[in-house]
Amino acid sequence: MAIWGWVPGVYVLTGIPPATRDAIGHFVISKGPLQGYFRKRFVNDLRSKVPDLFIDAVAPGAFMWYWTQSDGYESDDELRSFVDANYVLVAELSFKVGTKVVAKPVRFFARRGLPAPDANKLGPTSPRP
Question: In which band, very low, low, confident or very high, does the pLDDT at 25 lie, cut at 50, 70 and 90?
Answer without folding.
Answer: confident
